[in-house]
User: Fold Leucine-rich repeat-containing N-terminal plant-type domain-containing protein from Panicum miliaceum.
Amino acid sequence: MTEVTRAGSRRPSRLFVLTLGALLVMSCGAGSVSRATLGGEDGADLRSLLDFKRAITNDPRGALSAWNVSAHFCLWNGVRCSGRTRRVVALDLAGHGLSGQIAASLGNLSSLAALNLSTNGFSGPIPPHLGRLTELRSLDLSYNTLQGSIPGALTNCSILRTLNLSRNFLVGRIPAEIGRLSNLTSLSLRFNNLTGIIQPELCNATSLKELRLTYNNLGGSIPEGIGKLTELRTLSLTVNRISGGIPESLFNLSLLQLLSLTGNRLHGQLPPAIGHAFPNLQFLDLATNMFEGHVPASLGNLSSIQEMDLEKKIGLEGKSEFHLACFLTSFVWTWS
Ligand SMILES: *[C@@H]1O[C@H](CO)[C@@H](O)[C@H](O)[C@H]1NC(C)=O
Ligand SMILES: *[C@@H]1O[C@H](CO)[C@@H](O)[C@H](O)[C@H]1NC(C)=O
Ligand SMILES: *[C@@H]1O[C@H](CO)[C@@H](O)[C@H](O)[C@H]1NC(C)=O
Ligand SMILES: *[C@@H]1O[C@H](CO)[C@@H](O)[C@H](O)[C@H]1NC(C)=O
Ligand SMILES: *[C@@H]1O[C@H](CO)[C@@H](O)[C@H](O)[C@H]1NC(C)=O
Ligand SMILES: *[C@@H]1O[C@H](CO)[C@@H](O)[C@H](O)[C@H]1NC(C)=O
Ligand SMILES: *[C@@H]1O[C@H](CO)[C@@H](O)[C@H](O)[C@H]1NC(C)=O
Ligand SMILES: *[C@@H]1O[C@H](CO)[C@@H](O)[C@H](O)[C@H]1NC(C)=O
Ligand SMILES: *[C@@H]1O[C@H](CO)[C@@H](O)[C@H](O)[C@H]1NC(C)=O
Ligand SMILES: *[C@@H]1O[C@H](CO)[C@@H](O)[C@H](O)[C@H]1NC(C)=O
Assistant:
């Protein structure tokens, strides 16, 4: 009885397979193997790419001039597909002088792993629909003229590794949800006009190796949780309005190669042990803050240092003067 039922239920599916086969043969017969049609999943990719092209108002070098249905979109300039599924996995149109808005329909490229629209003239907002790209690992929209705030929905791209939105006109807060991006290794928001504070939640993104918030309008203090970001190699908070002291936990970041806090409102004394905390430090910029006291002698122990920029008004401790003098010849020393 069960057997009969199973056999019976199998028949329609076989019929379906046959029909599909016939359709495939028909479409091959029509000579369109190298084209995508508007149906199916690659059809969705085709539609969103055409929609993206439609939103581009200026293409001075003709980067998209061959984006038409006479060739499969996998062959279009800047598009990379998976060989197996023929879905779009990467879109790289950096540096083509394109302008216009970024079409929300890019969020329909559901297999997209890398999107690079850097160094163009894209304006308008970052579409929150990009948050639908759950396969996205790298998003680079840097060097454009994008406006508005950073959509919190971007943090739905849960396996994101690289997020670069630097050099735009973005305003508002850094979404706290970015801290949920456990795979994020690089976050660059340099040269925007972001306000608010560095939220403690951001320190949950413990894979971060690079955190660049240079040239914004961020206030508040450096969160104590910064010490959780033990993978950090680069920490730049240069030119913001950050106040308070340097939290003790910062000295846990022993892999740091670049630490730049220049141009903020930080105060307090530099901890005596600062030079022992960062054996890999190459660049240390602390100038134009409100630090007091002396340059700790231990700075003479920063054996990898190449460049150091400290505050003019804090004096050198006698001992460090001696140590620093020993290697002044091999690195750049700036009093600013
Ligand atoms: C993108 O997907 C949405 C929702 O599925 C749909 O309404 C819209 O028409 C699609 N846009 C394009 C250009 O395919
Ligand atoms: C369509 O793209 C092909 C290259 O794939 C190009 O030679 C052709 O000029 C394009 N046609 C139109 C109408 O833009
Ligand atoms: C995006 O493209 C630019 C220009 O080719 C390149 O410099 C940059 O590294 C790319 N971004 C990413 C995240 O690979
Ligand atoms: C992001 O995820 C939240 C919660 O799962 C959902 O409500 C929201 O619609 C998503 N946004 C986008 C743009 O996918
Ligand atoms: C954006 O940042 C990523 C990660 O640091 C970097 O690989 C990429 O080159 C940057 N893009 C540009 C245009 O510099
Ligand atoms: C993301 O990180 C988790 C651990 O936090 C890891 O298991 C997973 O493989 C990573 N995913 C990708 C796509 O790298
Ligand atoms: C940045 O934002 C602040 C506060 O919203 C505003 O006063 C300032 O003019 C903005 N600066 C730029 C360069 O847009
Ligand atoms: C993220 O950070 C906040 C504040 O630091 C903390 O309360 C919360 O438990 C953290 N969440 C996770 C998932 O680690
Ligand atoms: C810093 O490291 C010390 C031990 O090296 C540990 O006790 C402390 O909890 C760490 N602090 C933070 C904020 O991670
Ligand atoms: C670190 O500096 C101290 C003096 O501040 C010195 O006695 C010590 O030898 C130095 N250690 C290294 C590894 O350079």
Remarks:
- The chain has two domains: 32-138, 173-336.
